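Batch 3, record 17
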Amino acid sequence: DAMVIQNPRYQVTQFGKPVTLSCSQTLNHNVMYWYQQKSSQAPKLLFHYYDKDFNNEADTPDNFQSRRPNTSFCFLDIRSPGLGDAAMYLCATSSGTGVYEQYFGPGTRLTVT
Amino acid sequence: QKEVEQNSGPLSVPEGAIASLNCTYSDRGSQSFFWYRQYSGKSPELIMSIYSNGDKEDGRFTAQLNKASQYVSLLIRDSQPSDSATYLCAVEINFGNEKLTFGTGTRLTIIP
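Prediction for the assembled complex:
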């Protein structure tokens, strides 16, 4: 089945220790998104790629970076995690062909100690 | 005014009844509207999309769109305990930028 996969599902990191979250997709979609979601809040878009074109949200902290080495994979790097970065990180994809449906992976729960 | 607004709930509905969830949006030019279901601790799951005024039915779910009044709703018929979740309304804001804006969600509880 075509799907969006995120690894790891749970990540514990120490304050200030860099961490990388990964996302892969078999949907062959052009667009990949990274969201941050905290408890009882809406998913907050951090950035997205349309193919190789990177689009950063204006309020995304510089502490968050992303890479998309190919169509299938996308990575979220948190350079120096703070306690406030503890959240669910969601990867989503959409076809990019004018249909805006987004499909989410299972998410990575990040804990910062 | 928030771009996408939903009643946060919680909304409690008896099993077998109709659950009605509402969403309003600010961008009159929006063309695409979605409902996602999110179970506690899980990721959002797309359950309905609607693009034209009127009703769209899929099983026990009906999405309703009224662009003139800038609202979209989701009806769940014959509510089941498994429908207990948070329902997120998502709207394409600023046509063409490939982004969705999400509401904060309505928490729905189906009472057996």
